[in-house]
Amino acid sequence: MTRDDRAAIARSLAEAEEGTTGRIGVRIVPDRGVDAFERAKREFERAGLHRHPEQNAVLILVAPKARRFAIVGDRALHGNVGDAFWRDVVSDTEPYFARGALLDGIVHAVSRAGEALRAHFPDAAPQEAR
């Protein structure tokens, strides 16, 4: 990932979190032999997302060398969107990664997570007030 790629991801995170109380994290790991879902759960906790008071955080983990990715959502968000949402996000995102468009895939997954967070956890306070 280039510096510009990382900046684009940061912008997509800021846009996705705008208007919601939820939080989204992205981890890109260099591992070749990784169980993306298990690693995503560990990274979710390592990032402290499990301590978010509304239990509405998301972590997207991408392991490009392993050609794997996973998305993990906390309890409250999962309770609102259910398994079908996560399957849809994975299904929608897979083609980006399959064609090597890592950045576009990450931005897409972040955007989808943001849509769900805004729909179920809108932020009544302006972003600047935080």
Characteristic key phrases:
alpha+beta; 3 strands; 4 helices; Diaminopimelate Epimerase, Chain A, domain 1; three-stranded mixed sheet; 130 residues; globular
Would you mind describing this structure in some detail?
By secondary structure, this protein is α+β, with helices and mostly antiparallel strands. The protein has one domain: Diaminopimelate Epimerase, Chain A, domain 1 (Roll), CATH 3.10.310. The protein is built from 4 helices and 3 strands. Strands 1-2-3 form a 3-stranded mixed beta sheet, sandwiched between helices. Strand 1, helix 2 and strand 2 form a beta-alpha-beta unit. Helix 1 packs parallel to helix 4 (102-120) and helix 3 (75-98) packs antiparallel against helix 4. The protein is globular, with a radius of gyration of 14 Å. The protein starts with a helix and ends in a 10-residue tail after the last helix. The model has no long low-confidence stretch (mean pLDDT 93).
